[in-house]
């Protein structure tokens, strides 16, 4: 029996430890991969944003410098007074213009060419462009009317209709440009001078080789990554696939990215899971998209994660087997002691105690068993006393239930005695008192219909009027719809009692109590107003928020809050000599 039990415990330990180890190993492996993916995704997204920020910094200088040209005194003088028919003057102007443009744009290493185009001459660096004013780049600049236009990558020979250059190995075969229509002006001390109306306004064109974009992306991302830069019209500005450059790419997933500015997502392209990061340039408005296969990001880490997971699982498994063997031996001995002691207790021997010599869990278990056995013995002894007390409590409860019936019967006898002696007023008072006693002694203290509450109030007012010899009158103005709803029992009693006993204590006649009820929206309102002596604001605060003798009012407020919530309750407004007005707010449906 001993060997079998230990074997079962050992097998249970192995099973209970092996299964979690396998589950935890799988979870650890998947979680590690997930963490690596997320970290790689964040890193790649940051690189995309930093590349965009770097490019925006460089291209933003073009925006600033081109704006500065508008007020350049030398360019204003040259193009305001230039004679296009004078070749010598044109070449001299070209030298001066190249010098001015060089001051603004030579410091930007990514600028390939800077030029000012007119229909009669191209100023600045010379390129085989023919007549650039016939190009789409020139047309876009004119249409923008002075606003800087970023023209996406274009084929040089096609843009400028230089077919003889096609097929050649030009280092400027693909360019992208920033272009702006220049209407020069010059600010003197007091006035702003503008170019003569007849003078042709040139178009500034700053051109960049495609390598300025390629170097950023091809050197920043893991091997296997692809990138794409699109303008707002889905034209490819730059791409890891040279065949796509200058083409339109309207793939649905790219259309989805165009509707956003920046972000990252995971998706499948060509059946492979990839991480996509994208960000829009604040300068050009072009969106940069980079996607990398997940396998390229985690391939180097997968063997490390797999090996470490397997090694941890093997080590924990061996350790678990050793611990399971020793734990099985420590469990069986205390259990045998407990089984022997339990058999004795089952036979009725509550004096049984188990010896223990350790303070570990099993020692505590044996200690608790000894205490439990002692408590069982005490409880068995006390059980008889408890039963006797319960019987005495039941007898007292029955006696208390008999008291109201005794009072009803006594009041009934007194009522018939008053009728026989023709004391009608006394008879009516006894009937009212009997009804009030029946109402307040009901076992169910739940809500009651408003009609029951007002009936109790009528009996109460009748008795109090007889007691105080008609020193006050009562009037009702209650919306009939309120009688469809229930209210807490004895809702008004503390307030009318306060009015009679304290409000009218200094008057002999003329006291008036007005009870109103109405509905506003989803709220029921009740008001008890009197013309008594009133109270100070300090007394009102004490009644509502501090310790006071108004126990009935405190209980009523507490019952309303417990039943309907803290937003409903009671407010009191009063001033000495001006009476008191109590407002009660209850929900319409409760």
Outline the structure in words.
It is a single chain. With 590 residues, the chain is α+β, with helices and mostly antiparallel strands. Among the domains are: 71-211, PAS domain (Beta-Lactamase, 2-Layer Sandwich), CATH 3.30.450; 350-401, no CATH class; 444-587, 2-Layer Sandwich (Heat Shock Protein 90). It contains 15 helices and 19 strands. The strands form five sheets. A five-stranded antiparallel sheet has the order 2-1-7-4-3. The longest helix is centred in the first third of the chain and has 68 residues, at 2-69. The radius of gyration is 49 Å and the shape is flat. The two termini are 66 Å apart. Residues 390-403 have low confidence and may be disordered.
Which regions are unreliable across 5 or more consecutive residues at pLDDT < 50?
390-403
SS strand fraction: 15-25%
CATH class of the domain at 444-587, please? Alpha Beta
Count of distinct strands: 19
Structural class: alpha+beta
**CATH homologous superfamily annotation of the domain at 444-587:** Histidine kinase-like ATPase, C-terminal domain
Return the CATH architecture of the domain at 444-587. 2-Layer Sandwich
Distance between the termini: 66 Å
Q: Biggest sheet, strands in spatial order?
A: 2-1-7-4-3
Shape: flat
CATH topology of the domain at 444-587: Heat Shock Protein 90
Gyration radius, to the nearest Å? 49 Å
On the 0 to 100 scale, the average pLDDT is: 80
Pfam family, one: HAMP
Transmembrane segments: 9-29, 310-328
InterPro entries: Bact_2-comp_sensor_kinase, HAMP_dom, HATPase_C_sf, HATPase_dom, Sig_transdc_His_kin_internal
Subcellular location: Cell membrane
